[in-house]
Write a structure and sequence with these properties.
The protein is an alpha+beta fold. Helices cover 24% and strands 27% of the residues. The protein has a single domain, classed as 3-Layer(aba) Sandwich (Aminopeptidase). The chain is globular and about 55 Å long. The structure holds coenzyme A. Keywords: Acyltransferase, Transferase. This is Acyl-n-acyltransferase. GO terms for molecular function: acyltransferase activity, transferring groups other than amino-acyl groups.
């Protein structure tokens, strides 16, 4: 059982002035996909994250939900999830299009404040963050090689990002953020899709009942080379995190009784 949720926890849609804190949180919590080779490296706030978050916070087809908890009279920013919703395209019902999901966020001057209360990184920690570009490119290839994302053809909710501050993991915050989308999807009787790498895949599968879509699975070694399903089965462990590799998959969560098919594989809710 996770520890109890921190007292005073609040969940709300992100505002424009939350962007720097959000970027900081993302920098503090690299995911397994691209950056885990540099877990000791922190940079504040990361320009790469700022660049994609700034327009996203105003996009009504993306919903950024954040978790804040009161610490010493200030809001500490401890979690984030990003959702989109795909609806049937009225011009071509075999396809989907992004639907409005978020309230309008007024354009405000972005305040250079950091409500995470984290002290600046030490000199040792502030080495330049070097994204593992070979790894990122290999993951992109892995994703493209599998079936195209089912969200392009199936009305659904899609989880595009999930992060919980390292000091607050294990309190049920990640589950709380994901369950919101599962509840919305259950009401509308549509699936929820998420792409995950290593620890994300385990979390969505074991903690939240997602199912791995096997045609989308991929395994990469430390140099970003593909390892085939057959090689994995015959004991190649180059994809394991401790060996510098990574694996990933698209996962689906289905409402009760919903049946979903992808490349002749059937998944049931
Ligand atoms: C993955 C992550 C979001 C989980 O958030 P969290 O708030 O710590 O998760 P919760 O406290 O809600 O955990 C709920 C349950 O999931 C389990 N769990 C958490 N992380 C897990 C993991 N990586 N693998 C398997 N189970 C996991 C917990 O042990 C807990 O189980 P319990 O109820 O039996 O005790 C968080 O660890 C994180 O931000 N990681 C870094 C970023 C990342 O990998 N995001 C996923 C993107 S692909």
């Amino acid at each position: 059982m996770p520890r109890p949720l921190p007292p005073g926890l609040q969940v709300r849609q992100a505002r424009a002035d939350d962007v720097p804190s959000l970027a900081t949180l993302l920098s503090l919590t690299p995911d397994d996909g691209t950056l885990y080779q540099y877990p000791h490296v922190l940079k504040y706030p990361d320009d790469m994250h700022l660049d994609w978050l700034r327009p996203l916070v105003h996009d009504p087809t993306s919903l950024i939900r954040i978790v804040v908890v009161p610490v010493d009279g200030k809001d500490k920013f401890v979690g984030f999830s990003c959702w989109t919703r795909q609806e049937a395209d009225p011009l071509d019902p075999t396809k989907t299009r992004p639907a409005k999901i978020a309230a309008e966020v007024p354009v405000a001057d972005e305040v250079e404040k950091d409500i995470t209360n984290d002290s600046p990184p030490s000199e040792e920690q502030s080495e330049v963050l070097v994204p593992n570009e070979a790894r990122a490119a290999a993951i992109e290839r892995g994703r493209k090689r599998g079936s195209p994302s089912p969200a392009k053809t199936t009305p659904c909710y899609e989880l595009g990002g999930l992060v919980v501050h390292p000091d607050y993991q294990g309190h049920g915050i990640g589950s709380l953020l994901v369950r919101w989308g599962l509840d919305e999807a259950a009401k509308e009787r549509v699936p929820v899709f998420v792409g995950g790498e290593t620890q994300g895949v385990d979390f969505y599968e074991k903690a939240l009942g997602f199912q791995r879509l096997s045609p989308t699975e991929f395994w990469l070694d430390a140099e970003g080379r593909d390892i085939t399903r057959e090689e994995v089965k015959s004991g190649n462990e180059g994809w394991k995190k401790e060996n510098g590799g990574v694996s990933g998959a698209e996962l689906v969560w289905l409402p009760d009784g919903y049946v979903f098919e992808l490349d002749n594989e059937v998944y049931k809710g």
